[in-house]
Amino acid sequence: MAKRKARTPEEASRDPAAIALLECACRLDMETCFSRADNLVACNIGSQGLCCKNCAMGPCRLVGKAERGVCGATVSTVAARNFARAVAVGASAHSDHGRGLAYTLLEAAEGHAPDYGVRDPFKLIEVAGYLGVETEDEDGERRPIDEIARDVALAALQEFGKVRGEILNLERAPAKRQQIWHDLAIAPRAVDREVVELLHRTHVGNDQDAEHILDQTMRCALGDGWGGSMLGTDLSDILFGTPAPVRSEANLGVLREDMVNIIIHGHEPTLSEMIVAAALDPELIEYAKSKGAEGIQLAGICCTANETLMRRGVPLAGNYLQQELAILTGAVEAMVVDIQCIMQGLAPIADRFHTELITTSPKAKIEGATHIEFEEHRAMEIAKEIVRRAVDRFPERSETAIPDIRNPLVPGFSHEYIDYALGGFYRSSLRPLNDAIIAGRIRGVVANIGCNNARVCHDALHDYVVTEFLKNDVLVVETGCGAIASAKMGYMTPETALQVAGPGLREVCETVGIPPVLHMGSCVDNSRILTVLSQMATEGGLGEDIADIPAVGMAPEWMSEKALSIATYCVASGAYVILGGSDGPVSGSEKVLRIMSEGWEDKVGGRLEFIEDGEEIVRRALAHIDEKRDALGLAEYDPSKWGRSGDQRMPDLLSVPFEERIEAIYGAPTS
Fold first, then answer.
1. What is the pLDDT of residue 667?
2. Is the predicted pLDDT of residue 646 greater than 60, yes or no?
3. Which band of pLDDT confidence, cut at 50, 70 and 90, is reported for residue 666?
4. pLDDT digits (tens, 9 = 90+) for 61-80
5. Alpha-carbon distances, residue 313 vs 206, 235, 398, 448 (angstroms)
6. Would you say residue 658 has pLDDT above 60?
7. Which residues, including other chains, have CB under 8 Å from residue 50's CB and lie 6 or more apart?
8. Helix, strand, or coil (residue 76)
9. Could you identify which of 163, 248, 448, 458 might form a hypothetical disulfide with 13, taking C-beta atoms 3.0 to 4.6 angstroms apart as the criterion?
C-alpha cells in the first residue's frame, strides 16, 4: 500500500508533550500510531462509504461506471448500510458499558460484590423515579437502600430487552421532542432490539431504501443516548458518586520520576475505582517505598481518565493518541486497560520497556499482554494484585523522558452541579444560563466532544475551534478526549475566562466562578449534555425543544463508531451536529448526505454535516447559533454591550499594593 510523506512531530501534534515524545520515538526508531498513519494511505473507496462487503458476492466497489453492486444495491443503499452498521456497533459499545454497570449494581445490592455500594443515595432515588421503582413501602416509609438498588438494577437491565413499551428515559426529553419521535415511529423500544433490527436490515437482500435504513439508524442511536448511555451515567453516579468540581492536572508531566506510575486506560469505572482505592492502601505504599519509590502515582488516559478525574481528582496523562507516548516516557510500570479505544500497538512498545501491559476485561484481550481478568465479587483483591505487580517493576526502570508539561484544571461539572452552581442549594436551576443567553452575554452553547484521529494533527482542531468559540462568547461543554484536549490547553480553570473568553462570557464566568469550558465527563456522559439541553428547553425562554436552543454539537477529530452513534442520537434529539477532520464516511453518496442534513432537519429538527476545515466548522456553528437566536426573537449578538462590569478590574487590582487599590477604586484621598 502506498505511503504518504511522513510528518514532523510538530505537524503530527499541537501538544508539546506529545511532540517531545514523538521526537523520542524517532530517535529510538519506534513505531507509533502517528507513523503508521503516515505509512498507510486510507482507502478512498471505503472512506466514502462506497465499498460493500456484506456478502460473498463482493466486495463490490461502486466507483467509475459501477453504480450498483452484484445484488443491485445502489450507491445510496450501500452508503446508508455502511453508516448504519457503524452506528449499531457504536451504540452496542456504549450500551454494553451501561449494562455492565447495571450488573455491578445488582451484585453490590445482593451482597455478591462487597467492595461496591451505593455512594449517592439521592441519585438512586431520582433514578428509581425515572424507572418506575417504588422507594417507599405501604406505610410510606423509605425502603432499605439495598432493596431499592436491587430493583433499580433489575429495571435498568429490563431496558435492554424489554418485551413491550419504550425506553423509559425518553420521558426525560421535552414533551415536543417525545411527540416528534412518536409521530415518526423512531422512539426506541429496547436497546438490544434496535441494534439487532438495524443489523438485520443491512443484511443482503433486506432493507434497500436509504432513507428507511437511516430512520432505523436514528432509532438505534436514540436507544444508546437515552437508553444505554444514560443508564451508564446514572448508574456510575449511584455507585461511585455524582461528580462535583475538584482540582487536578493534565498531560504527561503528571507522571513522577520518583514514584511507581500506573496508567489506567479504557472506559469502565468498576475496575479503575478499585485501582484508585488500592493505590491509597498504606501497606502497598510502604511496599512501593521498599522498592525505592516515594509512593504510587495513578494517571488516566481516555475515558477512564475522565471517570477517575471527575470523581477522585486522578490526574490526566492524556487523550487517545497519547497512550503509546505514555509508555515511551520509560516511567510507566504498568498500563492497565479494559475496553474500547485501546491500541494493539501498545504491546510491542511495552516490550521495549519495563512496562507491563495488563488487560482485564473478558471482552478484550491483546496478544502479548498479561491478562488478569477482573471480577466484581473480588474486586479489591484483584486491584491490589495489579498494583503490587506494578510496584515490582519499579526497580527495572532505566532512563526516563517525562516531559515537564502539565496544566491545572477544575473538572466535575455534572448537570446536577451546574444546577447548583447557578442557583445554590435552595434555588438550583438552569434559569441563569437561559437568561444569560437571552440577554446575549452568552451567544450560545457548543458541545465539543469526541476522539482524536491519527490522520488529523493531534488536538489541532479541538484547540482551534474551542479558542474561537470562547472569543465569541460561546460557552463550551466537553466530554471524552475533546475534554482532555482543552484540559491540556489550560482552558478548564475559572481564571481562563479572564484571559481568553469574550466580554459577555467572561462576566458570567466571573459571577458564577466557573471555567469557560466545562468538563462534563467521559464519552458515555454525553447523556449529561442531553439532560442539560432538555432542562434548558423546559425552563422557558429558549423555546420548547432541544431544536430551538442556540446550540451546536461537534466532534472535530472523531474516529470511532461510538462517535457516529453519539452524533446520530444528538441529531435525532434535535441538535445540529458537525463531525470534523474529513468529508465523512458517506461522502460518495450525495443522496445520503442530503438525507442526513436537509432530510433529517425536516424530520427531527437536527442535521448532521461533515466539515473538514476548522474555520468552516466555526463559521457554520456561529451562523447556526445566530439563526436560532433570531428565530427565538432574541437580540442580535453584540459583544460591545458587555465587559464593563467591576469584576473585570479585580485581577489587575489584586496585583497592586492595597493603598493603590483603594485609590484606584475610590480616588485619591482629599487633604
1. 54
2. no
3. very low
4. 999 889 999 999 999 999 99
5. 50, 20, 29, 22
6. no
7. 61, 62, 63, 75, 78, 79, 588, 589
8. helix
9. 458
Q: Please compute, for residue 556, the number of CA atoms within 13 A of its CA located in the half-sphere on the CB side.
A: 28
End-to-end CA distance of the chain: 85
Residue 175 pLDDT grade (very low, low, confident, very high; cuts 50, 70, 90): very high
Distance CA 569, CA 217 (A): 9
Query: Grid coordinates in use for 610?
Result: 461533515
Cα 624 vs. chain centroid, distance in angstroms? 23
- Quick one: which of 577, 572, 597 has its CA closest to 587? 597
The candidate with the shortest Cα–Cα distance to 521, out of 509, 510, 513, 529, is 529
Query: Can you tell me the mean pLDDT for 193-199?
Result: 98
581-614 burial, b at 16+ Cβ within 10 Å, e below that, comes to bbebbbbbbebbbebbbebbbebbbbbbbbbeeb
DSSP character for 142?
B
Cα separation, 262 vs 276, whole angstroms: 10
Give residue 436's identity as a one-letter amino acid code. Answer: A
- Which residue's C-alpha cell is 443484511? 203
Number of residues in the chain: 671
CA-based nearest residue to 257, from 326, 330, 314: 330
Which residues, listed in sequence order, are joined to residue 264 by a DSSP beta bridge?
300, 336
What is the pLDDT averaged over residues 99-126?
97
Quickly list DSSP for 125-139: HHHHHHTT---B-TT
**Contact of 327 with 350, CB cutoff 8 Å:** yes
- The DSSP code sequence of 35-83 is HHHHHSPPPHHHHTT-EE-SSTT--EE--TT--B-TT--BHHHHHHHHH
CA distance 442 to 420: 19
Cβ atoms 548, 631 nearer than 8 A: yes
Contacting residues for 497 by C-beta, under 8 A, at least 6 apart: 505, 506, 509, 510, 514, 515, 516
C-alpha cell at position 596: 442526513
Q: Phi/psi of residue 531, each to 5°?
A: -65, -45
CB 110 within 8 A of CB 150: yes
Q: Which cell numbers in the block locate residue 574?
A: 434535535
Q: Which residues, 6 or more positions from 61, have their beta carbon under 8 angstroms from its beta carbon?
A: 45, 50, 51
Q: How many CB atoms lie within 10 A of CB 254?
A: 23
pLDDT digits (tens, 9 = 90+) for 587-601: 999 999 999 999 999
